[in-house]
Amino acid sequence: MADSPNIVTVTTENFQAVVLEGSFDRPILVDFWADWCAPCRMLMPILANLAAEYRGRFILAKVNTEEQQALAAEFGIRSLPTVQLFKSGQPVDQFMGALPEGQIREFLDRHIPRASDGLLAQAQGLLAGGDLAGARALIDKAREADPENARLALAELQLMAARGEIAEAQEAIDKLPIELAGEPEVLALRGQLRFATALEDAPPESDLIARLSEDPKDSLARYQLAAHQVVRGDYASALENLLTLMKRDRTFQEDAARKGMLAIFDLLGGGDLVAGYRAKMMNALY
């Protein structure tokens, strides 16, 4: 372990250079341990093996808390082992105790980009530009280079949706790896699929506007109009229509208006429009 270039013993003298400054180049995993701590000894070989396997994608920094009590106090270490991950000079996540290797991998993979992630990011850019063939080629290249990358499933799903395979994408999204379920991209995609499904048998937008001018209480027409507006990026109009529908007909398709607003919030991720309509939705509900 001492001979590994990816494992460093850290003291108060070199903590600034190794951890704080070094974490601007790549993540630093800091293991706070002590000789008397049996779980620490159980964890050590797991962390060492992962440091070797990841081949420099992160540095494992070892802090003996008996010898470096000031460092332990500075970072609020109250139980051992505690493992903190530093990026850009700051601790961004941590875990305590001797976790199983699988859970530590999940912890690392939340923060450490894989080599194939760059290819998948490029594929997403091509999808946004409508180059489905180019995206397919990059996804295949990423799969060949790194078949264990969980984000491959998301890329395949995004390609499926871009090809208009809505039913297949709806089925596949529920089979994504659990670590991706809460990702903003997945939440946004769920919203996109919701509205794409709503438009499968919908009339043109002009027909829906005409229907609503004759009968403003036509719930289906208002919901389908909002779906059209989402697909063409007019989120403000879609939210206004869904808010109106939610106020008038909460029973429509099992509260579809409220769920649709939540889906748009996930699509947009934040901002003034989301904040404003979230407040309006809450006022309407309560």
From TrEMBL:
Q: Where is the Thioredoxin domain?
A: 6-113
Mind listing the UniProt keywords for this protein, alphabetically? Answer: Disulfide bond, Electron transport, Redox-active center, Transport
Q: Which organism is it from?
A: Thiocapsa marina 5811
Coiled-coil segments on the chain, per record: none
What this protein is called in its record is Thioredoxin
Which Gene3D superfamilies would you find in this protein's record?
Glutaredoxin, Tetratricopeptide repeat domain
NCBIfam families membership? thioredoxin (TIGR01068)
Q: Name one GO cellular component term.
A: cytoplasm
The record's annotation in CDD domains points to: TRX_family (cd02947)
**This protein's record includes keyword Electron transport:** yes
Sequence similarity: Belongs to the thioredoxin family.
Q: Name one GO biological process term.
A: response to stress
Name the Gene Ontology molecular function terms of this record. protein-disulfide reductase activity
Question: InterPro entries in the record, alphabetically?
Answer: Thioredoxin (IPR005746), Thioredoxin-like_sf (IPR036249), Thioredoxin_CS (IPR017937), Thioredoxin_domain (IPR013766), TPR-like_helical_dom_sf (IPR011990)
